[in-house]
Amino acid sequence: MITNIIKQSVLVLLATVLLPLQGMGQGATLSIEDFSIKGGETQTMLIDVDNASMEVSQVEFFMHLPQGLSVSTENGLLAVDIAGRTTYRNHSLDAGIEDGDIHVILYSSTSSLTGTNGAVFSVKLVAAESFIGGDIVLKGQVLVSPDETESKPADYTYRVTTGAAPGTIIFADAEVKRLCVENWDTDGDGELSQAEAAAVMDIGTLFRNNKTMTSFDEFQYFTGVTVINNHAFSDCQNLVSIKMPNTIETINTSSFYDCYKLTSIGFPVNSGFRLVGLPFWYCSALTSVTLPKNLTSMEGNPFCCCYNLSEINVDAANSKYKSVNGVVYTIDGNTIVAYPAGKEQTEYAVANGTKTIGGYAFNNCSKLQKVTLPSSVTSLENSSFTDCGKLSSVNIPSTVTNIGTDAFSRCEALTNVILPSSLISIGSYAFWWCSSFTTITIPNSVTNIGTAVFAGCTGLESIKVQGGNTMYDSRNNCNAIIRKSDNALISGCKNTIIPSSVTSISHYAFRSCQDLVSITIPNTITSVGYEAFAYCYGLSSITIPASVSSIGNNAFRSCNGLTEVRSMILQPFAIADNVFQRYIDNVLQFTTATLYVPKGTKSKYETTDGWKNFKNIVEIEGI
C-alpha cells in the first residue's frame, strides 16, 4: 500500500536505465531516457515502459534518489505525470512517498494498458546547489494480462552525473568540492579535473579546522602531493573518510589531530611512506587499523590517544614492522612501537627480547594497571607511559640505562618505583605528577637528571641520592637532590631542609609541593628559578635573603596561602608581575600578602616593577 498517496506527476532521475521485466514474453523493459542535471537546476526526466505488443494491466515501481536530488512539487503534489506520447486510456496514476522513496503505480480501471509507444512517465527533478551526482536505484514490477502474471525485475542502480566532462572528479562532499574548486580550478569551469588535482603540489592547511567536511576520498587524485603537512586536517571533527594519493611519502605529526569521527583511512599503497610523530592522535572513533606493507618508518606511536582503538594490524608483507596480538613491534622485535589505547586488558607483558619501549608506546592507555618489562629492556623513550592514569605497577629492569622525558608523567596511581643501579639518565618531567610517590632513591650510577623530574609528586616525603654518586647528592640528609657542579637544588619535597652550601634553587624544584608549609632559604642563595615554588598552596610565609639577585617568572605563582613575604634585599631589582600572581575563582590576581622590607627601602619597592604591585608594603627594623 502507498502511504500518503497523491494522484499527480512523479519523479525524475539521471541517465539511461534498462530494467528487463523477466517472464514477459518478448521482454518488456523500464528505461530512463538520457538525463543529467547540475546543482541548482530543475529538469524533467522521462521514464519509458516498453511493453511492445503485450497487454499490461499495471506498472508499479519505487525510485530512490541520491542526496541533493528531489522531486518538484506543484500545488502540493509530486510533479509526476504521464507524458504526452502515451496512447493509454481509462487509466489512473498514483504517486506518493513511502519510506523516503517515490512510489508510483499506473493501472487500468476498465481495460488493460495497451499501446505501441509505451507508457512514458515524466518526473520534474530539482537539484540542490550542492548536488554532485550519485546513484539512483529503481525497483519495479508489472502485471501482464490476461492471466495477471507478475514480473519483478532485478534492482537496477544507475550512477547519476552532472554532465561534467570526462576526467572530472565527482566529489562526495560539497564542502570539499567548494574548497578545491575555489583554489585549484585553473580553467574556471566550476569543476576540478583529475589533471588539475594532479598539478597541486601542496595542500597546506586549507582544510584545517573545517567542521563541515565529512569525506575526502578524492584526495587520491592529488598525485603531485608527497607530504601531508602538520595540522593539514587537524580539528576536522566531522571527517569520516579519507583516501590518500599513492605519491605520499610523509604524513606529519598532528596532520589528523582530533579528527574524532575518522573511521576510514586509505593509506598510499604504492610508494614507501613514513609516519612522523603523532599524525592521528585523538582520532577516537578508530577501532581497528591496518598498516600497509609499504610503510617504512614510524617515529613514535602514530595512534596515541585513540581511546577506542583496540588493535593495530600490520600487513604480513611489511619488512619493517609486525603486529603481535594487535600491538606493533619492529620486525626484529627490538622495539615496541604502539600499544592501542583502547585495548581492554589491564595487564600486559612486553615480549621477551624487547630492548626499547618506544616513544609514546603506551601513552594514554587508561585501562592498563600493570606492565611487566623483560630483562632485555635498556631504554624507556620519551612519553612511553605518559597519562596511564591507572598504572600502579611497573618494574624497571636492572638493564635499563635511560628513562626519557615525560616517560611516566601523570601516572597518578603509580606507587614507588625502584630505580636500577644500571640507570644513567632521567629525562625532564620523567615522573611529573606521579602523586602517589612517597619515596625515591637515586642510584649512584645516575649522571644526568633533567628539569622537574619529580615536580607535582604531591605525596613525596623522602628524596635520597645514594652515596658515591659523582654528579648529585643529598648532603646533610636534606631530602633533596643537589647538583654538585654548581650546588643547585634541583628537586625537593615537603620535608626538604635547604643546606647552607646551596647557591641556587632550580626551575620547578618545589613546584606543587602542596603540603609544604614553611621553608628557610639560606643567605647563600643567589637565584630562585622559574616556578620554583609555584602551586605550593600550603606555604604561608617566605623570606627572601639579601643574597638573592634573580627571581624567575612565576616563582611563587598560585601560592594561594601566602600572607606575608619578607624581602631582605636592600636594592630591589625588577621582577615579572607573575612572580606573585594567583588564581582565585579562575581570575588571575596579584597576591594579597603583605610585603615586609628593610627600613628605608619602601619607596624603592614602590617604584620597582613587580614589587610595586603589593598593596601593602611595610618597613620593619632588623629584617
Describe this structure as you would to a colleague.
With 623 residues, this protein is mainly β. The protein is built from 3 helices and 48 strands. The strands form 12 sheets. An 8-stranded mixed β-sheet has the order 24-25-26-28-30-32-33-35, with no helix packed on it. Strands 1, 2, 3, 5, 8 and 11 form a 6-stranded antiparallel β-sheet that branches. The longest helix has 11 residues, at 174-184. It is elongated and about 115 Å long. The termini are far apart.
Can you lay out the helices and strands and say which pair or pack?
Elements: E1 17-20, E2 29-32, E3 42-50, E4 56-64, E5 69-71, E6 73-74, E7 77-78, E8 80-82, E9 91-98, E10 101-108, E11 119-127, E12 134-144, E13 149-151, E14 156-160, H1 174-184, H2 194-198, E15 215-216, E16 227-228, E17 241-243, E18 250-251, E19 264-266, E20 273-276, E21 288-291, E22 295-299, E23 311-314, E24 321-324, E25 327-330, E26 335-338, E27 347-349, E28 356-357, E29 370-372, E30 379-380, E31 393-394, E32 402-403, E33 425-426, E34 439-442, E35 448-449, E36 462-465, E37 472-473, E38 480-483, E39 488-492, E40 504-505, E41 527-528, E42 541-544, E43 550-551, E44 564-567, E45 581-584, E46 587-590, E47 594-598, H3 602-606, E48 617-620
Parallel strand pairs: 15-17, 16-18, 17-19, 18-20, 20-22, 21-23, 26-28, 27-29, 28-30, 29-31, 30-32, 32-33, 33-35, 34-36, 39-40, 40-41, 41-43, 42-44, 44-47, 47-48
Antiparallel strand pairs: 1-2, 2-3, 3-11, 4-10, 4-12, 5-11, 6-7, 8-11, 9-10, 12-13, 12-14, 24-25, 25-26, 37-38, 38-39, 45-46
